[in-house]
Amino acid sequence: MVNRYFSALKQRISTLCANSTRPDVLVLMFHEICPSENAYDSNFSIDFDKFKTLIFQLKSCRKIVKLSDIDVYDCPVAAITFDDVFENIFNEAVPFLIENDLPFELFVCEEFINKRNYIKEETLLAIKDNPLCSISFHSKHHVFVSHLDKKQFLEEISPDSFESKFNLKCQCFAYPFGSFYASHTKYIKEAEQFYKFAFSTINSGFSFNYQAKHKFFLPRINVSNNTFNKVMKKYITKRKDLC
């Protein structure tokens, strides 16, 4: 209980610190793209029309780039990411991004492949060679890695078997659940063995300086029907100064 309290406090402080910096980089985190009534978890879903509106507005303000390239630009950038990779993102969202020549990142949990509602192996094999799509890792089993010792932690975040099976290279990692309490920050620098960047669920944009200092626990902005208006107001419509 005490550990959870201090982790929550640390999460809050880190969110405030990240939010206090110039939001040069926005990493948007989506889950399901579908009507709330059709979602596995409506708290993490967004209607396609809202998704499309946000992306078009974002495109008017920032350069949308591959997630692994967020450190190579000196202009405001954004990256589009999907956690867990639900099947319904391929109904409208992914075709829309491809049609508009916009890069996107799929954070795949190895255990979820072929499970009901999640990406199928044949879909992954078909999409992985699209130049707009990057495949990254979201752990083997989607567990609280904070409950693991160092050896177990490294085994859980290692993409080796996943990369070998699908003949690809993962540049980035997203911690399951992504909070300080769930992610065991004691070991986060070990992610450097496998990845260029690793991502949390600290809810914020961040500056290029912040990026350089925290590259293995970077923030992402959760976007859903519940957060859509707040994200639009805080990071897009009020930040035309960054265009």
How is the CATH topology named?
TIM Barrel
Percent helix, as a range, is 25-40%
Strand content: 15-25%
Please report the total strand number as a whole number: 10
The separation of the N and C termini measures: 44 Å
Account of the 3D structure:
- The structure is a single chain.
- The protein has 243 residues and is an alpha/beta fold.
- Helices cover 33% and strands 15% of the residues.
- It has helices spanning 2-19, 48-61, 93-99, 121-127, 150-157, 160-166, 180-183, 208-213, 228-237, and strands spanning 25-30, 32-33, 45-46, 63-64, 77-83, 104-108, 133-137, 172-174, 197-199, 221-222.
- β5, α3 and β6 form a beta-alpha-beta unit.
- α2 (48-61) runs parallel beside α9.
- It is globular.
Describe, in short, the structure shown.
The protein has 243 residues and is an alpha/beta fold. It has nine helices and ten strands. The strands form three sheets. Strands 1, 4, 5, 6, 7 and 10 form a six-stranded parallel sheet that branches.
Tell me the layout of helices and strands.
Elements: H1 2-19, E1 25-30, E2 32-33, E3 45-46, H2 48-61, E4 63-64, E5 77-83, H3 93-99, E6 104-108, H4 121-127, E7 133-137, H5 150-157, H6 160-166, E8 172-174, H7 180-183, E9 197-199, H8 208-213, E10 221-222, H9 228-237
Parallel strand pairs: 1-5, 1-10, 2-3, 4-5, 5-6, 6-7, 8-9
